[in-house]
């Protein structure tokens, strides 16, 4: 089907709400009234027909498909977040180990330069060299490469990964807020429908504000919200 005109659909729905409310106020035995008779009762038939035309089965299916795609996208983003978090964790462990060894190597080098190791300087020099070559081998640094440059590169990758996680989490939380608002509106609409009543635009906005407040309060308390939970 053609692309959904969300603005037109919203405007049609807003116009149809008072018409539906007026229709529901009619006596139950007036369900066979003609369009002209309904108009005489103040029912905006044109608004109802416009909404019926725009919100047909194809539109509903398209909206459901779009929501399903959004949910799949959220799942893929969450999986990407988890993968990046695992990578960052591994990088942290590797970097901490390399930093520790480099610190020991640097301390021994400085001590050798200052002559503080006395007669043991030759054996310690060999030990320091062993540590250096062990690091080069573990890090798979090519011949002529710099161990310091490798560690700096590791730090840059770690910072980039952490930045990416923050970006993904920000986008994912925003999308989840939208999903939570949709679920809240649907739940409230279903409850009111059972009472033969439809939400007007003001009540819909109130539901959105309440859901956003609940979301912000939960985020401030450090609680992670998934969907409508």
TrEMBL record:
InterPro entries: Ead_Ea22. It holds the Pfam family Ead_Ea22. This is Ead/Ea22-like family protein.
């Amino acid at each position: 089907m053609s692309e959904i005109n969300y603005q037109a659909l919203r405007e049609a729905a807003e116009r149809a709400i008072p018409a539906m409310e007026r229709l529901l106020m009619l006596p139950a035995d007036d369900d066979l009234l003609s369009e002209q008779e309904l108009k005489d009762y103040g029912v905006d038939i044109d608004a109802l027909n416009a909404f019926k035309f725009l919100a047909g089965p194809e539109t509903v299916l398209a909206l459901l498909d779009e929501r399903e795609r959004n949910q799949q996208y959220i799942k893929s983003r969450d999986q990407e977040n988890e993968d990046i978090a695992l990578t960052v964790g591994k990088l942290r462990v590797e970097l901490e180990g390399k930093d520790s060894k480099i610190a020991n190597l640097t301390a021994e080098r400085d001590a050798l330069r200052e002559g503080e190791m006395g007669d043991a300087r030759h054996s310690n020099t060999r030990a320091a060299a062993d540590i250096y070559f062990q690091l080069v081998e573990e890090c798979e640094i090519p011949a002529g490469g710099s161990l310091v440059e490798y560690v700096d590169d590791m730090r840059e990758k770690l910072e980039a990964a952490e930045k990416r996680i923050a970006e993904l989490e920000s986008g994912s939380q925003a999308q989840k807020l939208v999903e939570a608002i949709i679920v809240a509106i649907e739940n409230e609409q279903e409850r009111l429908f059972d009472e033969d009543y439809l939400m007007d635009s003001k009540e819909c906005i109130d539901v959105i504000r309440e859901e956003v407040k609940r979301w912000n309060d939960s985020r401030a308390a450090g609680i992670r919200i998934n969907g409508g939970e």
